[in-house]
Structure formats: structure tokens, C-alpha cells
Write a structure and sequence with these properties.
Elements: E1 4-10, H1 14-24, E2 30-37, H2 44-57, E3 65-67, H3 81-84, H4 106-116, E4 122-126, H5 131-139, E5 147-153, H6 169-173, H7 175-182, E6 188-191, H8 193-196, E7 200-201, H9 203-210, H10 215-235, E8 240-241, H11 245-252, E9 257-262, E10 264-266, E11 277-279, E12 291-297, H12 299-310
This protein binds alpha-D-ribofuranose (RIB) and calcium ion.
Residues 11, 13, 15-16, 40-41, 127-128, 153, 162, 168-170, 243-244 line the site of alpha-D-ribofuranose (RIB).
Length: 313
């Protein structure tokens, strides 16, 4: 089986980091053409540095890392240090990575990659605000028909928002970018909070990762020890939700997830509900379905996959 070509667009972020490690540990299934970084959880100079550190933890300094947009399309950047800490990767000891950024803006890398590889052969995997993806589509509309699929983490419906009562962070930070992506016509698979809040890094799951007793195992467990604080305090949940790894787990074992093909529109006008993903879950409109919107996950299977792959690093 040939490995699936992907580009991971990310704003590390502890959960992004676990998603990256999962992907970097799966070279037989995933051919990572590149990692493109975007401002989100923390500013761009930190997200790109964190991505380079994570490649070093995985021993995958062969993967090019590009820096992308440092602010949303048309709004000031909103960050989430209160969740991820000042560095964006609080928890483990951090260092100045030796791996350098690869030349070239992330948006141009996305465009060139899609033009270079066969139409329909490259999957985009956004794990943060959609600024890089939307910028690439706006700069080079010809790439839209060349994208196989966009599998993204973002949005919420039954679970409602985590940054406002109505909106999930990735969509809220750049709702205009999200609107470009959700109206592009590219096949979408969406991992909203409805499913990611069911993928909780409980104590036994974190301890199973720590028990790997490897650099990647300790790095991940230390990140998750820090990352859970916000959600445990806010929701009383049993651990931190592994939002972004749901995207990569879907590529590796789609059967872990269930959802519904529905219409999803993005609110970009109302201050009250800005960034809301309005999912027509019950089909009450005649709006065309544009996204496979996930609602459930086999959490034990999900963590078994993550732990098994981390053990390979
Ligand atoms: O709302 C959760 C999302 O926002 C995750 O991708 C997390 O990393 C942050 O980017
Ligand atoms: Ca993220």
C-alpha cells in the first residue's frame, strides 16, 4: 500500500504535538510532504519552533517545516497561552531545536506541493486556524480541484464553543479563513469538539504512555500532565481532550470514528456567534452537505493506536 501524501498545518500546542508524533511515527501509511506552521495557540515564532522540536523528538528531521501566516486574514490574532502555557508546549523541558526552518512561506509550499503532485493525491490536515489554507486557496484557486480531501480539527455543534459560548478556537481565531475552506467545495472531514471531547487523556492513558519509558513517551506524558489543567478545571473532565490527534488517527484508522455528512456554514458577521460552525445535523434546510462532521470515537481504540505508535519512536 502506498503511503498517503499529506501536509500537516499546525499551531503546536500540546495536542498538535501528539498529532505530529502520531503522524511522524507512521511513515508506512503517511508520507508527510511537509509541516506548515500558523499562528494560533501561540504566535508563529513559537509554533514554528515547537514544530521543529517535535520533529527532533520523533527523529524525523527529514520532514520540511515551513513558517506561514502570523495573523488571521483580517482580524487581530487571538492566542491561548492560558491553555498551552507561554511556550505553547509547557510541561516538558524545552530546547532550541537544531533543525532549521525550510526556506519558503508555508502558503507557497502548500500551493507548489499541490501543483507538483498528481491531482487528488494530497490531503491537507489543518490542526489550527485555517489562515494558511485559505490564503493558499485565495492566492491559487487552481489548487482547489487538486486537493484530495481536507481533514481538519475545528468547530463544534452539540458541544458548543470552548472560546466563546458559540465558537471553537480554531474557527473563532480566523472565521473568514474557515468560511473560505468550508465553501471551497473540497471534500471535508471535520473533527469538532463533539468528538474530541470524548478523546480524553485520562490518568491510566497518560501513565500507559509514560510507561513506554522512551524520550517520546516521557515528552508526551509531561505535555499531557500540563495540558489537562485547563479542561479539568473548566469542565471537570477526567483528562485533557486530544483534539488534533483525531485528525491523524482518522487517516490511520477511520473506523474509530462515526459522524454524519451534513451542511456546515461559518458565522462571520455576528459578534455574538462569530466563528460558530452551524451544522445542519437534522437536515432542516435545503443547504447541500459539505462536510463529514464527526460525532463519536472509540476512545480506547484511539489511545491504543497513539500508544502503539509512540512506542515506535
Ligand atoms: O479548540 C481546540 C483547538 O484549538 C486545537 O487544535 C488546539 O490545539 C487549539 O489549536
Ligand atoms: Ca491546534
Amino acid at each position: 500500500m502506498t503511503a498517503r501524501k499529506i501536509i500537516i498545518d499546525t499551531d503546536p500546542g500540546q495536542d498538535d504535538a501528539v498529532a505530529l508524533l502520531l503522524a511522524l511515527a507512521s511513515p508506512d501509511e503517511l508520507d508527510i510532504l511537509g509541516i506548515t506552521c500558523v499562528a494560533g495557540n501561540v504566535p508563529l515564532e513559537l509554533t514554528q519552533k515547537n514544530a521543529r522540536m517535535i520533529c527532533e523528538v520523533a527523529g524525523r528531521t527529514d520532514v520540511p517545516v515551513h513558517a506561514g501566516c502570523e495573523a488571521p486574514l483580517s482580524r487581530p490574532l487571538v492566542t491561548a497561552e492560558h491553555v498551552h502555557g507561554k511556550t505553547g508546549l509547557d510541561g516538558p523541558e524545552l530546547w532550541e531545536p537544531k533543525l532549521q526552518l525550510t526556506e519558503g512561506h508555508a502558503v507557497d509550499f502548500i500551493i507548489h506541493s499541490l501543483r507538483r503532485h498528481a491531482p487528488g493525491s494530497v490531503t491537507l490536515c489543518p490542526l489550527g486556524p485555517l489562515t494558511n489554507i485559505a490564503s493558499a486557496i485565495q492566492k491559487a484557486p487552481d489548487i482547489v480541484k487538486r486537493i484530495k480531501e481536507i481533514v481538519l480539527m475545528g468547530g463544534a455543534y452539540f458541544e458548543v464553543g470552548n472560546v466563546t459560548p458559540a465558537a471553537e478556537f480554531n474557527i473563532y481565531v480566523d472565521p473568514e479563513a474557515a468560511k473560505v475552506v468550508f465553501t471551497s467545495g473540497v471534500p471535508l472531514v471535520v473533527m469538532p469538539l463533539d468528538v474530541t471531547h470524548k478523546a480524553l487523556a485520562t490518568r491510566p492513558r497518560v501513565e500507559a504512555i509514560r510507561a513506554l519509558d522512551s524520550r517520546a513517551g516521557h515528552f508526551t506524558a509531561d505535555m499531557l500532565d500540563f495540558f489537562e489543567r485547563f479542561d479539568v478545571a473548566k469542565y471537570g473532565s477526567q483528562g485533557g481532550p486530544l483534539h488534533d490527534p483525531c485528525v491523524i488517527a482518522y487517516l490511520l484508522q477511520p473506523e474509530l470514528f462515526t459522524g454524519r455528512n451534513v451542511n456546515v456554514e461559518i458565522e462571520t458577521q455576528s459578534e455574538l456567534t462569530l466563528g460558530m460552525t452551524v451544522a445542519d445535523w437534522w437536515g432542516v434546510t435545503d443547504r447541500e452537505p459539505n462536510a463529514m462532521f464527526m460525532g463519536d470515537v472509540d476512545a480506547d481504540g484511539f489511545f491504543a493506536l497513539i500508544t502503539e505508535r509512540l512506542a515506535r519512536l
